[in-house]
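Running log. JK asked me to keep both predictions on one page so they can be read side by side. First protein, sequence followed by its tokens:
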Amino acid sequence: MAKMTIADLQQMKRAGKKIAAAVVYEYQMAKICEKAGADLLSVGDSLGRNFLGHRNSEDFKIDEMIPFAKAVVRAAERAVVNVDMPTGTCAAGHAEIVWAARRVREETGADMTKIDIRGEEENLFDSVREVIGTGFPVYPQIGFEHIAGGELHGSPADHDHILKWAHALEDAGACMIDLTMVTHEIYADVCRSLKIPVIGGQAGPEADGRIYVSYSLVGYQAATLDRAGQASAAQFIYDIAKKGIDAVHAGKW
């Protein structure tokens, strides 16, 4: 199984092939998603909330991210691996971001890191540029934060804002972009105007690919238990676990 590179993802865009990406947090899900055909495995900073139970995203720091990132890198035989810069690290400022990026590169062996600059473009752009200057590829996240109801941003001002920063990041050497919470029209314009791939969690086929949070996609969350009409790996696991536990309680295992 030949290992893919960032250059391969960029070539997929030029060839009109869509990039399938999956957010994963650990070895087994990384293996499953890669076997399913994912081209990019992304260790998301949502790990802090979804897997470690942090109530505040800024409590999740690079020290906790590193072991999970190493596990995903060990799992990947073919897919490119990204490691997100934790929200708490981004909030700590320029020096912390550059230091943490060096740790990700040296300690995990990941192919690239994602730095979320949404709403902080002016403050964090230089951090992105400096990390790129060290030789470590950066996959910046731009767009808007998720809001209640999932409303997408699509005003003329939003359009101009996104295009401005997308082009600035490409010119700075970003290897691809994660664009979030914008309309399909903005996705289409950004993808047409950039040479590097642009993917996102709300993107349609007009984008260069789509990223799924694998645990949400398959319903591997306790919140999906007993939720009718929704795929639920959690329900499948619960049913098997409960059968075994009930058998022990009944003395019939």
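And the second, directly underneath as requested:
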Amino acid sequence: MKEHKREKHGEEHVIVENKQEEPEQTQTTQPAEESPEDKIAALNDKYLRLAAEFDNYRRRTAKERLDLVLTASEETIVGVLPVLDDCERALDVLRRSDGDNSVAIEGTELIYNKLFSYLESKGLKKIESVGKELNTDFHEAIAQLPAHKKEHRHKIMEVVQQGYTLNGKVIRFAKVVIGI
């Protein structure tokens, strides 16, 4: 029992608190002692999991590095593709034009072949399309034409823009015309 006295403007107030003080109980729960074999098994399990996690990390980063090396030049090669297209168009125009253009054709073919063989050495490949079924993983149909023969139906009749893959990854879809 505690008494508190307070005076307020000449009046004395006595406040009595009935508080039973409880003895503090200290309950410490100690876990049951683990046997040394259990500790060894737990540490061994932890070690094996950590080793497996590190091995997975090492494999994943090695794969990411390899992918980065294979596709590091992708942006540059995609930027060069319009030049390759221009060479193909120039060769087409030179072959169809009248007159003796054999020197111009030979020079343009030389430049085109050098450029394309270099890009091929870096993993670039053309997507073969004419006469094949439309595959949306490699082709983009931009037009349809009536097919004169039954075997040309639902097949690619013409390539408007050549498609390419770089190390198996499509970097530009082939824009094609299909027969209906």
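Observation for JK regarding the second prediction: The chain has a mean pLDDT of 86.
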